[in-house]
Amino acid sequence: MHVPDGFFDVPVSVGAGVFAAAGVAVCLRGAKRELDDRTAPMAGLVAAFIFAAQMLNFPVAAGTSGHLLGGALAAILVGPYTAVLCVAVVLLVQGFFFADGGLTALGVNITLMAIVTAVVGWAVFRLITRGAPRGRATLVAGSFVAALVSVPAAALVFTALFWLGGTAPIELGSVAAAMGGVHLLIGLGEGFITALTVSSVLAVRPDLVYGARGMTRALTLRTAEGDVQVGPAAPEAPSAGMGLRPVLVGGALVAVLLAGVVSFYASSAPDGLEKVAADKGLSAQEKPHTAENGPLAGYSIKGVENQRLSGGLAGVAGVALTVVAGGGVFYVIRRRRRGADAMTPASAR
């Protein structure tokens, strides 16, 4: 759902940019409460994983593909405020280095793919898990539904923005039906990827899943002397299982593998927005990207003739750029929180 330049008029583009900037500012403050010694490094990894996963378009219908948006996934793993920052970092890297998503449409893309998906995904996840029985099954099911709903929600907001300032004379009902239908299918893929990822992290280190805090049970073993609980009763405490560093290294290797190798086998069909734009005539309004001649534009390395090698190197470069950019942001936020905590009297904490 990367919106290119030219789809929206100046007032909507500027308004979305102001809204996105305000949302990011709020999230920079809110993330201070979410980023601790476990969440901060996880946030950089989540951003890198989302970048890599967005290179993997999966088929959803004849001639149409979709890819992960990632807002709901990030919200569940590292918290809703931090999630917006994770996806925003990905969009900045994609827009400036890979010519993916217009620069004048950056505010629109952050609004749709970062703010809407994270807020809606987190709200749905909390609604499902708050009143449900505690356990991993509830968390995984909640992750699936939250991610599923977040995608058509973003498509609905796109339709509303198009109504306010779309540049093509297309009937609103036609846009709404097309966007809603295809993105509901994409939402199923989003839900599957999100549920699988959350389930995998829960299996290794449940304390690293922000949305699982206070939700998971300790493992209970029945012995001759009675029932014995094994492991932390609440995931706020660090798990006694795998250390944090192996999780981060393993996650980084997965991101590199996805972006550098698996992405070559992704669907080449246009994604949901591209398909709708082509079918409805909106693609005629697209303007050339400012960075279209950049060294990484189009997810390929300029000057490298081998297509597979070029795409793989570009993907790995994108993961590295996302880790550096996201890691830098989250390090600064975490450092400021530590400074604020150090200045707060112990009796006031």
UniProtKB/TrEMBL annotation:
<dbReference type="InterPro" id="IPR002751">
    <property type="entry name" value="CbiM/NikMN"/>
</dbReference>
<feature type="transmembrane region" description="Helical">
    <location>
        <begin position="43"/>
        <end position="60"/>
    </location>
</feature>
<protein>
    <submittedName>
        <fullName>Cobalt/nickel transport system permease protein</fullName>
    </submittedName>
</protein>
<feature type="transmembrane region" description="Helical">
    <location>
        <begin position="312"/>
        <end position="333"/>
    </location>
</feature>
<feature type="transmembrane region" description="Helical">
    <location>
        <begin position="103"/>
        <end position="125"/>
    </location>
</feature>
<keyword id="KW-0813">Transport</keyword>
<dbReference type="Pfam" id="PF01891">
    <property type="entry name" value="CbiM"/>
</dbReference>
<feature type="transmembrane region" description="Helical">
    <location>
        <begin position="247"/>
        <end position="266"/>
    </location>
</feature>
<dbReference type="GO" id="GO:0005886">
    <property type="term" value="C:plasma membrane"/>
</dbReference>
<keyword id="KW-1133">Transmembrane helix</keyword>
<keyword id="KW-0472">Membrane</keyword>
<feature type="transmembrane region" description="Helical">
    <location>
        <begin position="72"/>
        <end position="97"/>
    </location>
</feature>
<dbReference type="InterPro" id="IPR025937">
    <property type="entry name" value="PDGLE_dom"/>
</dbReference>
<feature type="transmembrane region" description="Helical">
    <location>
        <begin position="137"/>
        <end position="164"/>
    </location>
</feature>
<feature type="domain" description="PDGLE">
    <location>
        <begin position="246"/>
        <end position="335"/>
    </location>
</feature>
<feature type="transmembrane region" description="Helical">
    <location>
        <begin position="184"/>
        <end position="204"/>
    </location>
</feature>
<keyword id="KW-1003">Cell membrane</keyword>
<feature type="transmembrane region" description="Helical">
    <location>
        <begin position="12"/>
        <end position="31"/>
    </location>
</feature>
<keyword id="KW-0812">Transmembrane</keyword>
<dbReference type="GO" id="GO:0000041">
    <property type="term" value="P:transition metal ion transport"/>
</dbReference>
<dbReference type="Pfam" id="PF13190">
    <property type="entry name" value="PDGLE"/>
</dbReference>
